[in-house]
Amino acid sequence: MTLLIGRQGDDELLAQLRELLLPPSPMTTMTPVVKVDQSGVIIGPPASSRDGRRRRRRGSKRGGRDDDSMSSYNGEQQHEEPPRHSCKTRKMKQRQKKMSSTSSLVTSVPDFDGYQWRKYGQKQIEGAMYARSYYRCTRSAEQGCPAKRTVQRNHDGGDGDGTPPKYTVVYMGEHTCTANDSMEAPVILETAAAVVAPVTSTSIKRPQNHDGTAPTTSAGSCSITSTSTATGIESPAISDITYWSSSSSGDYAVDDYCRLFGVHDSWAPPATAAASSLQEMEDFTGPIRSPVHIATADGWTIDHFLLQLASNDQPVSHFSF
DNA sequence: ACAATTTGACCCCC
DNA sequence: GGGGGTCAAATTGT
């Protein structure tokens, strides 16, 4: 597919770009993602699912904590704990159900999906080089949103070879949380936190490899900074753009976006929080705080960026997918 | 103090 | 029995 960017109307251009680059919503409004996951299983569009496992640890050294926020993540969980013997078959069905309602994508910036996630587990997967992280919607506790996702870094990329690391993100379940809580902002995440708080060099925590070599961070490599632009306006980093596969032909990753836009690894110094989280995202062994939509202070949006691309003599003139 | 993450144990399914 | 997913106390961060 090739999209030629001419000097058409901005609206039309933006519409095209949005359609190509900004899938509406990962879980609620996006078109179903059909993809083959790592195990070769065709993953269908997201459907309602619910992981209904509810049980008290048995023989754990830790005691139960019924008032814990996590314990009510499911909405149903506030109810009584069913006896183990009575819930077993139900759990089985629920697990099976869960597995049939997933969607996945490959991205370099797994954080960028427009939702807030809370990490509830991490596990080293057999045969996988990196641990898999488990997240659930932060609204799961308050609104019983069943949406979950797992993020796992792929083997290839990001190993110092200059390519950003890629992550396989698998979404399970649909978001039932209210839109204004999690999706009010556009899909584009403007980590441009940099804009929110101009960062001095002393506070920059640029993501870098543990060995201190050239950083190949997920977001850093895809930052769009003031590379630009004839206007002299410092555009914020659009560091988190997730491209959802919308066809069976393959996956579109963020670095594709960056490449297409002629974006280089010009890390825009983000605010410390964003930077640190991105850094920690590197290997998924540290805290991962989904940045979610951070509105830029100057109101910069992807629209502005795209408009600039269109209005200025940007090197990029077409997309090829 | 509160919230989020870490991490090892637990549970279920294959 | 082992792998994957989840729980929840402990830990860490704000």
From TrEMBL:
- What highest taxon heads this organism's lineage? Eukaryota
- Give its localization: Nucleus
Keyword presence, Transcription: yes
User: Positions of the region Disordered?
Assistant: 24-108, 204-226
Q: Where are the transmembrane segments?
A: none
Which PANTHER family does the entry link to? WRKY TRANSCRIPTION FACTOR 21-RELATED
Protein name as it appears in the record: WRKY domain-containing protein
